[in-house]
Amino acid sequence: MTHRTAPAPADPGFGAAAPGSLRAEGLGYRLPPPGRGRAGALLLDGVDLEVAPGETVGVVGPNGSGKTTLLRCVYGTLTATSGRLLLDGQDAAGLTAKERARLVAAVPQDATGAFGLTVRETVAMGHSPHKRFWEGDTAEDAAQCRAALERVGAAHLADRRLDELSGGERQRALIARALVQRPRILALDEPTNHLDIRYQLDILHLARTLPPTVLVVLHDLNLAAAYCDRLYVLAAGRVVATGTPAEVLTEELLHDVYGVHTRIGPHPVTGRPNVVYVPE
Questions:
Q1: Where is the ABC transporter domain positioned along the sequence (predicted)?
Q2: Looking at the DSSP assignment, which residues form a beta bridge with residue 82?
Q3: Are 183 and 207 in contact (CB under 8 A)?
Q4: pTM of the model
Q5: Backbone angles phi, psi at 32, to 5 degrees
Q6: Going by DSSP bridges, is the β-strand pair 42-51/56-60 parallel, antiparallel, or unpaired?
Q7: 3-state DSSP call for residue 177?
């Protein structure tokens, strides 16, 4: 099993927790039935997944394969309808919302709820799992926000409104908010979506160097190969392959799962698999 080789400092200044573990056992999610006598669609079907402390693990697969559904079950906006999810060894079904938020922080594709706030105000929202609802922010809280913004290279954006930022700047602010949450696991849903290449590389490099364990959903297979220790491939809600990028990203599998022809060889710089798509 491959682990990150460049971990962040143990105490980066924002109260970071040690990286945690994640385990899904037969995890399933079925939509509510659309009408009497009809079963809801099965979006996840018996998913087994394990992420060790300190790993960056990617989830890939075609549209509709269950990637985002799986991630939402991990960070709690959806509740699995079967199976079991263990967060740092604790059964997620027995955790309160605040207890879960102390273990897992999410950076979803869309974060419209924070729009209208400044970056500083957005990042400070990460303190909420550690406070009672009447407690205000302290000087220490403000210092942790500054440290998180500095860690993601966004300190200069603190007074800007979140909805005025570019996509890459906004992603950095949302990751800073997640860091202030002091999670043991960081769940990222398509963090490179709609970003320029420079920001795609910056965001994924940043994710690998942060303290929490990382579970990330990605569309781009070459980015997944370059930045993930291991991959899980989903199709129709099921895991169809898992392993290192070199073990998983084969021409046969990509043809079976994605229906495309490819040529795969080692990247000339990193040695990781490099996927070239062959036109029909």
A1: 22-261
A2: 28
A3: no
A4: 0.89
A5: -60, 150
A6: unpaired
A7: helix
Number of H helices, E strands in the chain: 9, 12
Residue 9 CA to residue 13 CA, distance in Å, equals: 9
As a whole number of angstroms, the distance between CA 98 and CA 13 comes to 22
Task: Give φ, ψ of 253 to 5 degrees.
Answer: -65, -45
Task: Please give the chain's pLDDT, 280 residues, in tens.
Answer: 444 443 444 446 766 678 999 999 999 999 988 777 677 889 999 999 999 999 999 999 999 999 999 999 999 999 999 999 999 999 999 999 999 999 999 998 766 555 689 999 999 998 888 887 767 778 888 998 999 999 888 999 999 999 888 888 888 899 999 999 999 999 999 998 878 898 899 889 989 988 899 999 999 999 999 999 999 999 999 999 999 999 999 999 999 999 999 999 999 999 999 999 999 8
Q: Residue 250, SS3?
A: coil
- Angstrom distance (rounded) from CA 192 to CA 196: 8
